């Protein structure tokens, strides 16, 4: 009987569902950055703006109202977004202040982003990125919208970040804490909801703790979002979630899950491969819970 109980206990250790909190944070936050980048580009290029957006060109401030009629993609809360931006030629640097929006969700309260570079390659495509050091969790957002310290060398250095090579492998991306975002505005510059937003990158937006005491990381490779097509999941691409615990050389790997996204708008992803504590979930679908 003791042997049977021990075996059942060991089996239970490997039947834990993959923990997706970090991945959920990455998708929601990247979608928000893509949404803001699309609106900022339209504002500074003199293009038509959605009716929930106002732009003061003299101050460079953009105000966005988020409500039921004008949601922030993959976010159910009402609130507002204020963006300050410096723009020159085909590029700019924006600071973002988020008000009353539960982004990225969970225990973390993301209040804004310091400086996020944008390049509009043509009338259709936008490139942007953000890194972990750009993110403000909790206090500190009171200084966000002051871009007076962004000198020309700083401005150029921010834009040069977009020349960083994107990872092509989830196991590389998960360690970088950088998210690369490409926005295809789909020939409708005044409608950010039908943009194709493609995300590659990973790491941690905010610390996500696993049930077994590890810290959860994520990676995204060519994860494609289009909110008007599907408001429940990415429609293409791949992702990785990893559970690491301090100890060993240098960490104890508690489990990994490699996922693929699909066209079905069912709020799920397919688990191609799972290891460690998540091994029971090989070749199954899992709810993403990002809507």
Word description of this protein:
This protein is α+β, with helices and mostly antiparallel strands. It has 4 helices and 15 strands. It has helices spanning 2-13, 21-44, 152-160, 170-173; strands at 53-56, 61-66, 79-88, 91-99, 104-105, 108-120, 125-131, 135-137, 178-184, 196-203, 215-225, 236-246, 251-260, 268-276, 284-287. It has a 15-stranded antiparallel beta sheet that branches. The chain starts with a helix and ends with a strand. The model is unreliable at 1-8 (pLDDT under 50).
**Could you tell me how far the N terminus lies from the C terminus, measured between alpha carbons in angstroms?**
45 Å
Determine Rg (CA atoms, Å).
20 Å
Low-confidence stretches: 1-8
Helix content range of the residues, please? 10-25%
Strand content: 35-45%
Helix-strand topology string: HHEEEEEEEEHHEEEEEEE
Number of helices: 4
Count of domain modules: 1
Give the averaged pLDDT, no decimals.
88
Reported for the largest beta sheet, the result is: 15 strands, antiparallel
SS content category: alpha+beta
The number of E-state strands comes to 15
**Which descriptor suits the 3D outline?**
globular
